[in-house]
Amino acid sequence: MLCFLNLSDSAFAGNEVIPECHAHIKPLHIERERVAQMDGIWGLFEKNRALQGNSVIAIDLDKKINSIIFHLQYLCDTLNGIPMNEMARYVRDGINKKGEDGFRRELIVLGKTESEIDIWFEFTRFSLKNIKRALNLKSVLRSIKGSATFFDSYVSLAHKIDRRGVEGSIKADSIKKYVIELSSRMDSFYNTDPNILQAITENARIPYYDINESSGGS
Question: Cα 118 from chain centroid?
Fold first, then answer.
């Protein structure tokens, strides 16, 4: 049975560490934007005749760079706990008001399936359990520092393509190999860095939801 307390959604004490954490991500943002201004690795591949047929690996690399930024931002934002999102607050408040069975019946009337409701309730349990879960700032900063090498390589690659171009199959093959190797190194980082793994796992638990649809709004 769910037990929903009226916990505050306000910021927790000690949130001054969050801006400090984000300050360490700022240089990575700058590096990414330098490449974005050149249309990303995908755009550089598309503009280069020798690389045009290999845009899939370029898109994948751009996505992985953006994903690292996203997960690092998440880690900084949740150093002192995971704030409840709109859906978790909606379920919490509904159960506090009508009880678990009563709110479940209401959601069924509004068109939600039993499996959807189970997912919503389970995520709300997770949210309440982790609303004050804490991360170690020094550990997160090590993860940020560990990711910096990927951004340095990303910018270096972009400039190599943009300024010098790629002529001939040998140089094109060298660029493609470099992109694949960089992407593989990033995969290893995703799979071994404990903070990134935690961010991926926690974000994967957030279900799709449409509060307006479920509550009859427009």
Answer: 24
What is the torsion angle, in degrees rounded to the nearest 10, for the CA atoms of residue 60, residue 66, residue 68 and residue 69? 170
Structure tokens at 188: 């290893």
The residue segments making up the domain with residue 114 are 84-133
Q: What is the pLDDT of residue 3?
A: 45
Q: Is the pLDDT at 164 greater than 80, yes or no? A: no
Model confidence at 139: pLDDT above 50: yes
Q: Is residue 11 part of a domain?
A: no
Q: Report yes or no: 78 and 136 within 8 Å, Cβ to Cβ.
A: no
- Provide the CB-side half-sphere exposure for 210 (13 A, CA): 9
| Rg of the Cα atoms in the chain | 22
d(CA 96, CA 89): 10
Single-letter amino acid, residue 65: I
pLDDT for position 13: 43
